[in-house]
Amino acid sequence: MVMVLFSLVFSGFMSPVLAENKPMVLKMVTFLPDVKPGNVWPHLLVKKVATISKGELVVKIIGGPESIPMSDTTMAVKNEVIDIASIVTVFAESTVPGIEILGLGEYSSKEIRNNGTLDVFKEMCAKAGLYLMGTAVPSDAQKMQCFFLKKEITSIDELKGLKIASPGGLQSAFIEALGAVCIPIAYPDFYTAMERGAVDGYVHGVPGIMDFGLEPVTGFMLEELFTSPTNGFFMNLKKYNSLPQKYKGYLNQASAEVDEEGAVIFNQLIDHVKKEIGKKGVKVGKFSHEESVKFYKLYRQSMTADTLKRNPDIFPKMQKIVQNPDFYRLK
Question: First-to-last CA distance in the chain?
Fold first, then answer.
């Protein structure tokens, strides 16, 4: 009997809290490859959890999209295949209707946590058996993504007719409102699509050009940023609820600190990316102020209309808490 009990403890069938000096390990996958610069935030979460818990709790990254495809990560978490995943919200929308509304937010990752908006999204996720810890790639409001193109442009009209790659059709309403054509393609396939001329550009988070080594097939970065984080750290709700209270505290504190510090890192990384891709021949440019305001308003109007169409029962209640009528990009 003693030998059986000993075996159970150390094979993981009993609570890790009962095993002497054995930390609890939570396994995580990320939607970006585990390489710099895109792995900064998952590793920041790993470090924060280890520091805050003093080694009692460990988050272990086991891989990126090569281990579990982005389109499958939501169900992998929901079905307890993995404990935690950073997930692009477009791939969680069918499981958590309305979760994409996060991307329309005109408040920073820290602000949506502090003003109660994140709690509303947490409730939405809980109904689907998921626990939303926080944003996986935090940023200031509407500074997450941009267009990367083969050729330089100086006006919105020059986007007309261009074929733009987007994972899962993310931002398709905006792309089409610009007069471009949205081509749903997974991130790992962007390089080949650009190289073969299947697309003229792609939508990606700013660090994505370096995460996937897209510099050789990219000629221009349009520094007209849009969307707030369309991603999050998601955990299986049953797994989260089973944790001792102090472990929940470790995860929540770590996530809150990642939201705040991670946004600062993202701002710094924008400058780093521009500098590094410039060395490899990728030009960076902006529109005039007038064209920039027009560009952002078109994004806001098209994505608001699309979101309302797809979530008529949810979005009207959410619009007031995610959109800022005094947002500086509208002026």
Answer: 73
